[in-house]
Amino acid sequence: MEDKYFDNKKILFLSVKLFNYENIIAEKLRFLGAEVDYYDERPNNSIFSKGIIRLKRSLYNRIITKYYHEILEKIRKKKYDYFFLIKGEVVPQFFIDRVIELNPKIILLYYTFDSFENNPNGIAILKNFDRKYTFDPKDSAVYNLKFRPLFFSDDYYKLDSQQNPVYDLLFIGTAHSDRYIISEKASVWCLKNKLKSFAFYYSPSRIVFLFFKLFDSSFKKFNYNKISFSSLKHEQIIELYKQSKVVLDINHPNQIGLTMRVFEALGSGKKIITTNADIKRYPFYNENNIYIIDRNNIELNYEFFNLKFEEIDEQVYEKMFISGWLKELFFDDFSFNWLQK
Description:
12 strands; alpha/beta; Rossmann fold; six-stranded parallel β-sheet
């Protein structure tokens, strides 16, 4: 009966593309009963376009304006209950104004999985939204947004794992900051302790990687031969999870919001080693399942690898699931206190 909340709700959904999560979210909303029209928030997802949008958006305004007028033309005769925006990197004010004009009773819902330090346009448009959420506790306090961490999708639900895992430690992540240094140190430790590790580092393009290699000191230690310029598919990640015992999570040093990797690992029944000490404040924190390391002084514990995963409280587990995430964003009935002081 609870899924009736979304029945026949008409949702205009805009989001940047992020490893197919935008489609996973849209499909889950449809499964729950909503009618969803999804549009990519960016006019183009080429490396050049992304770079221009972030560094000098004014040079791209003509293309952005044209793109959003095209969307408006497609939706002008439709009526929506919700406008759901994730991140708000480029959406212009005139588009939001026109959506409201076409749908006077519409509820505007905003969520970001990035910090506003990386996305100033998000700050500029916040005033328009009725419901505003962020994954970052720090931004939640500074900008007066509700705090709501990320989720795991259906694919990761309590994965059946191999009896004899191939890998003791698994790392999958985009190449940035000190991730490579930390992961490689963990790999060396595993080798010394006769444990097997696997690391997958992703970069969106060779040009981007070489740029950072030249101008970012943390990238100078990255081994070019270990970088993949093609991201893993969800099916490939899930298979690696099945083959692994523990997942390594390395958050960006400037963000304390928990990564998607944390929720996917715990949702699938995998233990976590993480650099994010803020995880202690969450209701699913359990020393048996989660081991915190200092990114500046990495010390691992061999015994942690031998502990069995302890089941998470079912109520909390349901909140971590994608349907729990969506219900909390859209409806007050599902609000939840995520952080302990």
